[in-house]
Amino acid sequence: MKNQVPALYIHIPFCDSICSYCDFPKMLSCSSFQDKYIDKLIHQLENIEQHNFETIYIGGGTPSSLSVPQLDRLLSFIAHKFDYTDEFSFEANPENLNLEKIELLRRYGISRVSLGVQTFNKDSLHLLNRKHTKEDVVTCVKNLQQCGIENINLDFIFGLRIEKFSDYLNNIRLAFKLGVKHISYYALQIEKGTKLYAVPEIRKDSDELADDYDYIVNKLAEYNYQRYEISNFCQRGFESRHNLVYWNNREYYGIGLGATGFIDHYRLVQTRNIKKYIDDVDTFASRTYEDKNEDEFNFLMLNLRLEQGFNLSEFKRVFKKDFLQVYQKELVDLQNDFIIDDKSVRIRPDKFFILDAILVDLLHFEKE
Ligand code: SF4
């Protein structure tokens, strides 16, 4: 019998405006496309035989940019067809998640909301082409809490040249004051095809980024947000259960434009072309079989992002070999980067910022 797939991801690609740094599969909101898109999503979801998941995640894009009737249609379909045991997450932007939509989320069982905030600094928000204000975030968090959704994440970005430690401190302090349980803090990436690609100097250099990261990790810990993944911090018990499925290299369905799934050793990537997604029967851009070597590579790459690393006996159970023996040679050179005991392997807390370089040396893959 087929194993239960633990997670279901559903992608909503629409955004009311496009942020200057964004490389995700997304497009400007367009009402006529949105209705057809939801038809197609529902059609694909209907074809999933499994009904129970540990976690369901609606991400984007900006799921909260859908209208109330569109959201109602999608969420009611999901709530009737699927059940979850651990977490049902919804991504939103503070400026378009009004009280009416929050009540809808509550009604259909959403248990966690992740808000795209990036910073509370007004000038930085302008540079990033974000459309919300600090006040929008405060109102949105309070509305969510009043409606009974306490499990809230705020997404932040660091590394803009104009931002100082004091900006990061303001962000963390306000999140804490609002009673937010989870914070993601990502380094700004300058991606090809984005507006910021033309002005790479807008981002700090790698030494400055390392200092910023250090400061942020320490400040978050002072405010009781413990790092559990390289970019994710929370109060005890509020880890993102859905993202842990990814980091533990477990299986998941990925439904929607540009979404990726991982089932039965196949990495399934859907098209990023909206017309093709809506009109075609086969919406996959690629289906790639991942053999044991790739599986091992992903296992290490993903699990080592976690503060707790991975269990040596789990590695042996999955790959039928001993990690310490197989990587004996590499571990001699990397001994100062890992903490290894008789049970587990993890990255030293002060080495997280250079995780990519450590992985290159451990796994011998080409740096981009
Ligand atoms: S960062 Fe989020 S809100 Fe901004 S364009 Fe990308 S998907 Fe849309």
Structural write-up:
With 368 residues, the chain is an alpha/beta fold. It folds into 2 domains: 239 residues, Aldolase class I (TIM Barrel, Alpha-Beta Barrel); 60 residues, no CATH class. 38% of the residues lie in helices and 23% in strands. It contains 14 helices and 17 strands. The chain has a 9-stranded mixed beta sheet with strand order 9-10-8-7-6-5-4-1-11, sandwiched between helices. Helix 3 links the parallel strand 5 and strand 6. The mean pLDDT is 96. The structure holds iron/sulfur cluster (SF4).
Helix-strand blueprint:
Layout: E1 7-12, E2 14-15, E3 27-28, H1 31-46, E4 52-60, H2 68-81, E5 83-92, H3 99-107, E6 112-118, H4 122-127, H5 134-146, E7 151-158, H6 165-177, E8 182-187, H7 206-222, E9 226-229, E10 232-234, H8 241-247, E11 252-255, E12 260-263, E13 266-270, H9 274-279, E14 284-289, H10 292-303, E15 310-311, H11 312-319, H12 323-326, H13 328-333, E16 338-340, E17 344-347, H14 355-363
Parallel strand pairs: 1-4, 1-11, 2-3, 4-5, 5-6, 6-7, 7-8
Antiparallel strand pairs: 8-10, 9-10, 12-13, 13-14, 15-17, 16-17
The site of iron/sulfur cluster has 11 residues, from loops.
Structure, briefly:
This protein is an alpha/beta fold and 368 residues long. It has helices at 31-46, 68-81, 99-107, 122-127, 134-146, 165-177, 206-222, 241-247, 274-279, 292-303, 312-319, 323-326, 328-333, 355-363; strands at 7-12, 14-15, 27-28, 52-60, 83-92, 112-118, 151-158, 182-187, 226-229, 232-234, 252-255, 260-263, 266-270, 284-289, 310-311, 338-340, 344-347. Iron/sulfur cluster is lined by residues 15, 18-19, 22, 24, 26, 60-62, 93, 116.
